[in-house]
Specification:
Elements: H1 2-16, E1 27-28, H2 29-34, E2 40-41, E3 48-53, H3 54-60, H4 65-70, E4 75-77, E5 87-89, E6 92-94, E7 98-100, E8 103-104, E9 116-123, H5 127-130, E10 137-143, E11 152-159, E12 165-176, E13 179-190, E14 199-211, E15 216-230, E16 237-238, E17 241-242, E18 258-273, E19 279-293
Length: about 290
C-alpha cells in the first residue's frame, strides 16, 4: 500500500505543475459562414488547409498577404503587375479567390494584415461552398471583432534594413454590460532594394459588438484604407532567367508609375443561434473603392 500512496502523491504534484496551453487557429471560420455550420475543428475539415493567426503574423513580421503565401506549402505568389495580390493555388493562378469574413473580396489591391484575427488558406477545388472560380483554392481573412467583458491593448512596431517600417495598434474597450468597442489602426512605409520603389499605407478599422441576447450577436465595422505605391513590374529576363545587372533598377518613374487606392467598407453581421446544430447569419456589406493604376 505504501508504494501506491507515494505514487498518488507524485501524480498530484505533477498535475499541479502542468502548464496550460491555449491553441489558436484551430477552427475554420469561413466554413461557419458559407456552410452555416457550427465551429469545425481543422482536423475534421475534408480539405487541405493552413491557418495563420495574428500571433503568427506578429512573431514572423508578416506585412501583407504575399508574405504569408510565401511561407505556405502548396501556394505561391506571383507579381500581380505590381499593384494587386496574385496567388497561385496548386498551379492555378487567381486574383479573385479572396474572401473577407466569408464574403467574396475580389477587388484588385494589396491587402493589409493589421486588423486580422487569422488567415485561412484552403487548397483544392471548393466551388460547392464558395461558388464559381474556386478551382485551385481560396484565402479567407478573418477580421478582429470587439470582445465583450475584456479590456486590452497592443502596439506593434517593425522595421527592416531597407528603411521600411510599420506601426500598428489594437485596443478593446468594454463600453457597457452588453457592448464593446475595438479599434485597429496602422501606418506603413514601404521600401526595398529597388532604386525607385516606395509607398505608404494607412488603415483604420473600428468595430463594435452588441450582445442582443444569449442567442443573438450584432457586429458592426467600418474600415478605411489609403494606399499609394510605385508600380514595380519586376526584373527583365534573358534566356529564362532574371538579368542580375538589372536587379536594383525599377523601370518607370515615381511620378507617373503609381497605383493608389482609397476604400470605405461598412459591414454588419447579425448571428443567431437557433440550437446547438442550427444558426443563421445575415451579412450586409457596402464598399466603395477608388483605385488608380498607371
Amino acid at each position: 500500500m505504501m508504494p501506491v500512496s507515494a505514487q498518488s502523491d507524485s501524480d498530484d504534484g505533477q498535475d499541479s505543475d502542468v502548464e496550460e496551453i491555449v491553441v489558436k487557429g484551430k477552427v475554420l471560420y469561413s466554413d461557419q459562414v458559407n456552410a452555416l455550420k457550427t465551429p469545425v475543428r481543422i482536423l475534421d475539415v475534408p480539405q487541405t488547409l493552413s491557418i495563420v493567426t495574428d500571433v503568427d503574423i506578429r512573431k514572423q513580421g508578416f506585412r501583407e498577404l504575399g508574405d504569408i503565401v510565401r511561407y505556405t506549402p502548396g501556394v505561391n505568389t506571383s507579381q500581380g503587375e505590381g499593384h494587386r495580390d496574385s496567388v497561385v493555388f496548386r498551379g492555378v493562378r487567381s486574383t479573385a479567390d479572396f474572401y473577407l469574413d466569408g464574403v467574396r473580396d475580389d477587388v484588385q489591391y494589396y491587402r493589409s494584415l493589421y486588423n486580422l484575427e487569422q488567415v485561412e488558406i484552403l487548397r483544392g477545388p471548393n466551388a460547392l461552398l464558395f461558388g464559381r472560380g474556386g478551382t485551385g483554392g481560396m484565402i479567407n481573412r478573418v477580421t478582429k471583432k470587439a470582445v465583450i467583458g475584456e479590456e486590452f491593448g497592443l502596439v506593434d512596431f517593425g522595421a527592416d534594413t531597407f528603411g521600411a517600417f510599420d506601426v500598428a495598434a489594437d485596443y478593446n474597450w468594454q463600453t457597457a454590460d452588453n457592448t464593446a468597442l475595438r479599434v485597429n489602426v496602422h501606418v506603413d512605409s514601404l521600401d526595398n532594394h529597388r532604386d525607385l520603389y516606395e509607398g505608404d499605407r494607412t488603415g483604420f478599422n473600428p468595430t463594435m459588438r452588441i450582445q442582443m441576447s444569449d442567442q443573438t450577436t450584432v457586429d458592426l465595422s467600418y474600415e478605411y484604407a489609403d494606399h499609394e505605391r510605385v508600380i514595380d513590374r519586376g526584373i527583365p529576363t534573358e534566356n529564362g532567367r532574371p538579368v542580375e545587372s538589372l536587379e536594383k533598377i525599377t523601370f518607370g518613374t515615381s511620378d507617373i508609375n503609381l497605383t493608389t487606392l482609397e476604400a470605405h467598407i461598412l459591414r454588419a453581421n447579425i448571428s443567431h443561434d437557433f440550437s446547438d446544430s442550427r444558426k443563421g447569419n445575415l451579412i450586409i456589406q457596402s464598399s466603395d473603392f477608388e483605385k488608380r493604376y498607371t
